[in-house]
Amino acid sequence: MTKLAWTARGIAAVSGAVLLGSLMTPSAAAAGGAAEERKCSVARDFSLASPDDVLPTIVFRVATDRQGHAFLNDTRNPGVWINLGLLDHAPKCVVDTAVAVGPNRALKIDLLARNGVIHHTSCVINTSVPYTPANLPSFCGVGFSPVGGTPV
């Protein structure tokens, strides 16, 4: 009978340790946190826009790589893809992109993060100066802002 009692106590102790370990998991790890960011792996995505009425030869492209990074290309600067992560508040794991040219020569960029939150920025289009990694932050102001009402 004492062997059975010790076995029961041992099982209870192991179960309690497992339960305690799962309850004490840091909230960042439980919510995906840094471990999830390092493991961001998504399908590639691509979108483009052109200010047809103003400068029909310019095309803006936004694309993602398989690690969830988003990049902007301005055809006036061939072969240069600017990592949009250099803008403030850019999402870390991008799964979808949208780009459009709005009124007043504004480039509108939306990035959908893996967690469902859409991040938006609006950048001034200078007709004579192409976007570069050095000047993009000055053209895009405060960088990205989450769109209210998301995740979707």
Q: What's this model, at a glance?
A:
Residues 1-30 form the signal peptide. This protein has 152 residues and is of the alpha+beta class.
Describe the protein in words.
Keywords: Signal. There is one protein chain. The protein is α+β, with helices and mostly antiparallel strands and about 150 residues long. The chain has 2 domains: about 30 residues; about 110 residues, no CATH class. It is built from 4 helices and 8 strands. Strands 1-2-3-4 form a 4-stranded antiparallel β-sheet, with no helix packed on it. A 4-stranded antiparallel β-sheet has the order 5-6-7-8, with no helix packed on it. Strand 3 and strand 4 form a beta hairpin. The longest helix has 22 residues.
Q: Which characteristics define this entry?
A:
four-stranded antiparallel sheet; alpha+beta; 152 residues; signal
SSE topology sketch:
Blueprint: H1 2-23, H2 27-30, H3 33-38, E1 46-49, E2 60-64, E3 70-74, E4 81-83, E5 94-102, E6 106-113, E7 118-124, H4 136-139, E8 145-146
Antiparallel strand pairs: 1-2, 2-3, 3-4, 5-6, 6-7, 7-8
